[in-house]
Design a protein that fits this description.
This protein is of the alpha+beta class and 535 residues long. Helix content is 49%, strand content 20%. The chain has a five-stranded antiparallel sheet, sandwiched between helices. Strands 10-11-12-14-13 form a five-stranded mixed sheet, covered by helices on one side. Strand 11 and strand 12 form a beta hairpin. Helix 12 crosses helix 13 and helix 13 packs parallel to helix 14. The radius of gyration is 54 Å and the shape is rod-shaped. The two termini are 56 Å apart. The relative contact order is 0.06.
């Protein structure tokens, strides 16, 4: 509880994103404002520099100034002209200097007749100059232009200056525009940051990063720890999730996430389940060598369908063991039938002896012994595998109890050297096919079992069960081998529809085949290669 409270007290995702985006926006706008202000200052400085240069060139070109400086006696009045021009142009000073470096005009009358603080030699050499310099008035922006006489000789120069603070003041006039623009951009950016943070919070359904991390870690730990397969697809049908169990059951590659069931070549029935075409629960699927039970669930967030989730359970071993249990039950029923029959015969013999018909009792026992011997001998001579022979005898007793004529074909021949793993699948195939035939015929019908090992070429075990029943619909023959599908309408169908599916799986494990012929009688034929490496 303390951990949860501490996490709740931290900065929420919405506020964190809003503050982070706003701080980033402020830093960006501050940098942009500084660059903008610097650019404006440079533009204003360049403008004042050009104005100072233009003024200096204009004064230097005046005939009065040129004539005054060209006259060695400097007759006339030039200081008042320069002061008039300065006041009209609003410059800090307009100074006229002769070729000897003596001032002849200055805003300060006491400075007239003195020398400038800077070296006049570069300008007197005929060069123009602009720049910032320190002077008696402070930092000023200056422009110097040489004055030439009619012969083109430099007779002095004109220096025009403006205070740097005036340039800065002129540049600061743009600060309100810059500040207003930046504040407007900040307001719009902050609003956008708030909208984005709320949209992200809506997308995460109000969960904070710590909660999302907990959910992700819990989901990963849960999905990959359970033995059931979990397969999820989004609304477009692409695979979103497949845990290790699902990958193993369906044979999915590691890069299955993001691909569609069609690309992964999944079972057609499973694709229907993922598309939502089959919404039944506990749907049985025969995938490869497995018998899977899948339960689909729609995934809804709010009122929207966001995909489907299918859980898969491997019932192969359970159903196989159930089939073996049915075989054991069949044998037990056969033994029970034989026990009843044996008890009836003992009672018959006892009655004969009580009546004093000892000779008739002896003949009756001889006939029973011969019949039993012939039945056992008929099976043992053709089926040398003890387990398979016992199953055939049990099926014969079961058929006898039902009143069905059961017969082992005369051409049947099975040796003793069947591989142990193959023997288990042979028992499964024979038991399920015979049970299917016994259920299909009535008390006046018949069932024939034919089991033969072909020794020529590739050793192949053929199992054929023929019955006199009405037979299935030819159009639904292929569907009979689908798990959970049964053609029987009577009894409890919840546990039906697995026998033929198990037969097909057992045959596929050995790369064999199984087919049905309903042309005349109903004939189920299964072929299994007899090789240890065929499985």
């Amino acid at each position: 509880m303390t951990k949860r409270v501490l996490r709740r007290s931290r900065l929420s995702l919405t506020r964190y994103l809003f503050l982070a985006n706003t701080v980033l926006l402020i830093v960006t706008l501050a940098a942009a404002g500084a660059l903008w202000t610097l650019h404006e200052y440079r533009d204003v400085r360049a403008e004042y520099t050009q104005r100072a240069m233009t003024m200096a060139q204009s004064v230097a070109a005046l005939p009065e100034v040129r004539g005054y400086l060209a006259d060695p006696q400097h007759r006339g009045e030039i200081a008042s002209l320069a002061e008039t021009i300065r006041r009209a142009s609003d410059f800090r000073y307009v100074v006229i200097v002769d070729a000897q470096g003596i001032r002849h005009s200055h805003p300060d009358p006491h400075a007239i007749g003195g020398r400038p603080h800077t070296d006049p030699a570069p300008v007197l050499a005929g060069n123009t100059w602009t720049g910032m310099e320190w002077g008696p008035a402070g930092l000023t922006l200056r422009a110097r232009v040489p004055v030439r006489d009619d012969a083109g000789d430099v007779v002095g120069y004109v220096s025009v200056g403006v205070l740097s603070s005036r340039v800065t003041l002129a540049a600061s006039n743009t600060l309100p525009v810059i500040g207003t623009t930046l504040l407007l951009a900040l307001a719009l950016g902050a609003g956008g940051a708030l909208w984005i943070s709320r949209r992200i919070r809506a997308k995460t359904h109000g969960l904070e990063p710590a909660e999302i991390t907990e959910l992700l870690e819990g989901r990963e730990a849960l999905l990959y720890a359970i033995t059931e397969g979990v397969l999820a697809v989004d609304a477009d049908g692409a695979v979103l999730l497949a845990n290790d169990s699902a990958r193993e059951m369906l044979g999915l590659p590691q890069d299955c996430v993001g691909r569609t069931p069609d690309d992964l070549e999944l079972d057609e029935h499973l694709r229907e389940v993922l598309r939502g075409a089959d919404t039944r629960q506990d749907v049985f699927l025969a995938v490869g060598g497995r018998l899977l039970v899948c339960n689909p669930r729609p995934v809804r967030i709010g009122e929207h369908d966001t995909g489907r989730l299918v859980t898969l359970r491997d019932h192969t071993e359970i159903v196989r063991l159930g089939g073996e249990l049915d075989g054991v039950r069949t044998m037990a029923n056969g033994l029970r039938a034989q026990t009843h029959e044996f008890a009836n015969r003992i009672h018959t013999v006892t009655g004969m002896l009580d009546l004093g018909a000892a000779g008739e009792a002896r003949e009756y026992l001889s006939e029973l012994s011969a019949t039993t011997t012939r039945a056992s001998t008929s099976v043992s001579e053709r089926v040398h595998d003890t387990a398979l022979a016992a199953l055939v005898l049990a099926k014969s007793a079961q058929a006898s109890e039902r009143g069905v004529d059961f017969e082992l074909a005369a051409l049947s021949d099975v040796p003793r050297e069947l591989p142990p793993q193959l023997r288990d699948d042979v028992l499964l195939v024979v038991g399920n096919l015979v049970d299917n035939a016994l259920e299909a015929v009535d008390t006046t019908g018949w069932v024939e079992l034919f089991v033969l090992l072909h020794r020529e070429g590739e050793r192949l075990l053929e199992i054929r069960v023929t019955d006199s029943g009405p037979g299935p619909d030819p159009a639904g023959v292929e569907e009979m081998f689908t798990a959970g599908v049964s053609t029987k309408e009577h009894g409890d169908s919840s546990h039906r529809g697995f026998g033929l599916a198990l037969v097909r799986q057992a045959v596929q494990r050995w790369h064999g085949s199984v087919d049905v012929d309903v042309t005349e009688e109903t004939v189920f034929s299964a072929y299994l290669p007899v090789r240890e490496d065929a499985r």
